[in-house]
Amino acid sequence: MIASGFFIAGAVVCLASLVISVVATIVRQYPDDVAILSVAAVELFLIVYSIAAAARQIGGEPIVGEAWEFWGYVLTALIVPVVAFWWAVTDKTRWSNLVLAAVGATVFVMLVRMEQIWQGGVFA
Amino acid sequence: MSERQTGLGRIIIAVYGVFALSASARAGYQIATDFGEAPVAYLLSALAAVVYIVATLALASKKPGSWALSTGAVVFELVGVLVVGVLSFAVPQLFAHPAVWSHFGNGYGYIPLLLPVLGLWWLFRHRPAEPAGRAGQAAPDRSEEAGA
Q: What are the residue ranges spanned by the domains of chain A?
């Protein structure tokens, strides 16, 4: 098991980023710096998570579910904050904050799926 | 002129793009694997996919006439969701398997029902000031992002 500590940390980072970005959508008319940083924090978490997952797998700790499906989620999730950052750079409106908000929500859902695949069956 | 394609407009285009991809993939898969199970539902899924593709391209286009084509596609989408939604409750045997627009798109969190309403609202806030063709860059958008 990839320790529920990882899941809790990831959930906190994702939900904090979601809240910050939703607030930024309301109060800012341009992409907010803190919202962008919060999305960077999500990306940082995902990088640490994937390195830890690789280390555990190489160290002999098996994934209960399908390994290709787990890594498919990891790689896709790693792309999400990058796309949102590119979006915020290329569209300097209030609405980029909403796109940044989608990162926290999306990555959180994907993280739940990753944990399910890693541990097998329904995530408790 | 490009106000229509920035901010919320860009998000709307992206959501249409996602639906164009997922509806195409789903309809293609359904028709290829078990078309005989619910041919009407699956053909309507394919129709939905085509409408989403047209809407995505028209919304993203800056050419004259793209506003009218966008509006046509989105109105068609809204009518489609409503008609298919009603049919799926009235004649459920035709919809043995869920399609994109059946039950008003509940399989997709009712986004197929909300999306055309949002799209129409956006398009009417950003309609060209003059009939398509002449407007060029002289068409100022009536709405400001800040006011949204």
A: 3-119
